Amino acid sequence: MSSATFRSLQGKHFAFFGGTAGIGFAAAQALAAEGASIALIGRSQSTGQSAVSTLKSAGAGEVAFLEGDLSTLKGGQAAAAKVQAWSPVLDGVVHSALTACNEKRMTADGLEFYYAMQYQVRITIDSLLRDNLAASGDGRIVHLAGPAPKMLTPNLNDLQYEKTSWGFYKACIGTHNLFFMFIQEARLRWQQQAISIAAVCVSSTKTKMQLDPSMPLLMRLSNYFAVTPEVSAQNIITYMRWRKIEEKDRFGIFWDYKKSQISEPQQPEQSARQLWSYTKQIAAMKGVVLDAM
């Protein structure tokens, strides 16, 4: 690709939720090297401050670590408010916060752990920051994902597993299908907003989470054939660097980490509408109003 393919990142502001390590941090380093300003949102002050130092050395324009709880709706709301205070105008948001859990757990909100962290809180943050992203004239959102088959889609009538049995692959991997549905529905509802949303699918990646004893054995074994975070981060970097995102690519999915190619989501339309409404209702039940939805 020629340099004309990419835009300058000098003076642009990006927020990385869960970007203090792994794939998100690899992407943040690449953007920092081009002079972008970066906010990292995470739990650990020590890890966050170490990451800030690395990004400053890489050449970032401005770097901040914002402590945040990304497992609850109020925590997500508070994190979004900190980002808005850091920069009212945003050029990009990246969601890469992941964690390991091989048994059913509930968050402080009473929501299933993976549903909360990998879907509900992410979408809550997107909705709260939508207007800040649109204010840049070309706001971009990335959700780190995996190429989840539709057969693993959680039951939309039992997303908290109150009636059906919990399983790691359906809860963790299948949850990615939920934000594929979100992207598909956002294509209809947010079309007039100056924003774009992409899910970036990756394969097994050498991260601390991949080797966590809480992960299933198959996931841990796959680490021996995994790629580096820098390889998995490439489509995140590309998406944020592109000078222009074509209309057909504004709401889509990078299915293959080896290709910078976006496809439209192909989720059931009724399911996508149902999930959109459910997401807004759950947020309201926890005291977070999502006017953008």
TrEMBL record:
Q: Does the keyword Oxidoreductase apply?
A: yes
- Give the Gene Ontology MF terms in alphabetical order: oxidoreductase activity
**Which keywords has UniProt assigned to this entry?**
Oxidoreductase
- Please state the span of the N-terminal signal peptide per the UniProt entry: none
TM ranges: none
Q: Does this UniProt record's set of keywords contain NAD?
A: no
User: Which domain of life, per UniProt?
Assistant: Eukaryota
**Pfam families the UniProt entry points to:** adh_short
PANTHER family recorded: PHOSPHATIDYLINOSITOL-GLYCAN BIOSYNTHESIS CLASS F PROTEIN, PHOSPHATIDYLINOSITOL-GLYCAN BIOSYNTHESIS CLASS F PROTEIN-RELATED
Protein's recorded name: Ketoreductase (KR) domain-containing protein
Q: Which organism does this record belong to?
A: Peltaster fructicola
